[in-house]
Design a protein that fits this description.
Elements (H helix, E strand, L loop, with lengths): L1 E6 L2 E6 L4 E7 L2 E2 L15 E2 L10 E4 L2 E4 L12 E5 L3 E7 L12 E10 L2 E10 L5 E3 L1 E3 L2 E3 L12 E5 L6 E4 L20 E3 L10 E4 L5 E6 L5 E5 L5 E5 L8 E8 L18 E3 L4 E11 L1
Antiparallel strand pairs: 1-2, 2-3, 3-4, 5-13, 6-7, 8-9, 9-10, 10-11, 11-24, 12-23, 13-22, 14-22, 15-17, 15-19, 16-18, 18-21, 19-20, 20-24, 21-22
Length: about 290
Amino acid sequence: MTISLTSGSTSGVVRTYGGELVSFKAGGLEYVWQGDPAHWNGQAPILFPVCCSAKDNKIAFDGVEYPMPKHGLARKREFEPILIAKDRVVLEQRETEETLQSFPFCYSLKADYTVREDGFSATFTVKNLDKNEMTFCIGGHPGFNVPLCPEDGGFEEHSLFFEDAEGCTASITKDGYMNAEVPKLDILKGTNELPLVWSDYDNDAIILENLPKKTVCLLSRRSGKGFRFDFEGFDALGLWTPDHKHSPFICLEPWNGLPADVAETTDAKSKKYAKTIAPDAEYSVGYAVTVIR
């Protein structure tokens, strides 16, 4: 099922399978990657209860290991609409017998999308409906078209501009894992600009931590146009486009949780930036896109 949203001349489309916002159009331009399988058939999955990989594709709670697929369980299951308005929709996913085989908790995961005339916002709220405290990761994986239109030039005529990258660390995974032995990247040393270069992603995602300000602008160096991406409340930002494909999109992935580290165990609490909440407690976090045209 898809649900259409409008605000003035802008529009959005939300799909209940996976709870994703799969389209945002403003000024006649489509901002969200449309899932061409020749490059990547995803669009904007919600990552829960892990971001990226779990150690050996397993996760342990109270010493018991459970199978956990990459990026978790939410992205390949239905959400139910609990609020539908002209410019806003709220979807909810609850546990099932199937999810309990991998994530042994009763939970509510809500995805709240609002379309504005100058952009859109996405908020994810996790509520612990279990009798035990619950540890999880939560993140987004939205893909954005680059370029948005011919006047903006090509992919490599764009840059990410950070408000303040001082103190930021940049790293890549090795064989799908974080690894302290892999040298940190110096791509943001002494600068707030990160040009988009396809070959930078030939290994895997670039992972940014310790950003003092959780905002970045993706802009064409030719036209100066693009959008601002705000991700307050997230601990890390992943940047990804498929390796060796020269794909016309990039994913800006705000995460509370990282790919598994070679040094960590399968224990859920060993995952960096994982969150733990008590029974009946909630945790909310989100991101927003603002058009710059």
